[in-house]
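Quick one - inputs below.
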Amino acid sequence: MTDAGTEELLDPSVVATVQGEPFSELPRDLYIPPDALEVFLEAFEGPLDLLLYLIRRQNLDILDIPIAEITRQYMQYVDIMKDLRLELAAEYLVMAAMLAEIKSRMLLPRPPAAESDEDPDPRAELVRRLREYEQFKAAGEQLDALPRVARDVFPGRAATAGLRPARRLPAVDLDELLSAFSEVLGRAAMYSHHQIRREALSVRERMSETLERLEGDRFMALDELLRPEEGRAGVVVTFLAILELLKAALVELVQAEPFAPLYLRSGDLMPGVGRDE
Amino acid sequence: MSEPVMENILEAVLLAAGEPLSVDQLQVVFGDDPPPRRTVEQALERLSAQLTGRGVELQRVASGYRLQVPGRYAGWVSRLWDEKPARYSRAVLETLAIIAYRQPITRAEIEEVRGVTLSSNIMRTLQERGWVRVAGHRDAPGRPAVFATTRDFLDYFNLSSLSELPTLIEIGEPGPDHPELDLPIPNQGPA
Amino acid sequence: MSEPVMENILEAVLLAAGEPLSVDQLQVVFGDDPPPRRTVEQALERLSAQLTGRGVELQRVASGYRLQVPGRYAGWVSRLWDEKPARYSRAVLETLAIIAYRQPITRAEIEEVRGVTLSSNIMRTLQERGWVRVAGHRDAPGRPAVFATTRDFLDYFNLSSLSELPTLIEIGEPGPDHPELDLPIPNQGPA
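Output:
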């Protein structure tokens, strides 16, 4: 008799099921059909469980077990288990030996100082183990009684159709950008004769800004683009940016007649511009 | 439609998740500028109050907060599925209880309490369910594994911490052997 | 606790199911003496009304009724599923750097600097991120698009203008050709 398998359909209140009939109580005597007895005996979780059953059945005090009587009953069950050729686990025999030992020590005359801690009741260790086992037997039942997911409580879940997972966008560090740039420049220098010069960023930026400002407007006067409040440096930057844009053929400069105001328009608006890509 | 209030956002997020979410995880859904923990916890309390009497309740478990159908609806809900919920043998439940209350504990110690050899089926069941794990090895001859329960165990049994386990019943005489397990449990959160 | 009303039972059952249930299926959960269809439907209507403004709503779909998270919570819920932030490939970073430092620039010019063909994935990635845009078209054969960085790009990197981009001087690039143009520009012009 070993621990039974895993997820048996064992209702804690049902000790055994015999030919489909659930039994919630073990019989009071041993005169029960052998096949039923086998099932009852199988239901014990081990010698401690069997002992507890014997003690509880007779309403005995666990702290003051009549060891001779309990041992006799215990051995009866063990004999029946043997007769039925139940796979009798060695633990049952170990317990039988322990009971016999306690019994023999109980029979010995007690020394005068019997109350001292030096010579405890020979049953003390058995009582300790029985109490501990009973505690955890009850704890197992309490655990089983706790509200359990999928049996008592059910995680609530609502559909999320149509809600898309957000992609978390990669983070980039400014230093990474710089190092990527320096690396690509270094590589370019190796296989190209292309001279890469550092250009004043403010001109580049102003080029992009100017393109942005020209977007959507059909024409923009040059004066509008130059902002005197930026000071001379600002005006120069813008002017250089416009020259660069003209050179790069990104904008068109239009003048209706000599000395008329200069207008700029974005390449996007120039005739024949297709869509992106 | 006006901007949803925080408790409804939390309700939506918890129901979308279908599993417990920690306050940390709940903060994340608010993006780059998350509300403080306390604010989230207060909104969870308001949500819990709102749900009183409803078909769903907020429960605090070990891995966070979970919206769940309360036990009083189990009768109706269980008719949804043909399959009956798994039941566990006494051997499994006793072993689980011993590990839960006495962790970390070796196999030999479990066997000592139960008085029988521990079948490997039982430990496999408990580990496969994710309720028990090897928490380490004892520095003793043979370096035996010590077992402990997991957060999933607590989640599954509707507990937010081991201190919420039912108090061990005292058999025979008063005075607990393990007073640390008998500490009064402060009321746990809004659940 | 008093007996739950039908709409709460339906709420519980639908949340436990997490998928659409037909009225037939909903009737089944009431056991051997199920309420008539009409009664269930009326309870569903009451449930739907109760859920107004909440983090969950009742939706009728082809296979029945389901409780779902309303679309207006998408922003929060979607952050739940955030994957670990990916990283941009070297190619993406280099391309971004070239555009940032050399804008406005055509695709062909980027390819020339990098020495390899620019995959359209890279440009799509940068444009979807909102960091790069087509700033115009060059008046040249094929009228190629020129790319520039955006204001979002500056915001992300916490720059108020491109001139705040780190310079390459420290890493050995020749100094600026037009040092006078690097004067700080007061007031950054139109946004």
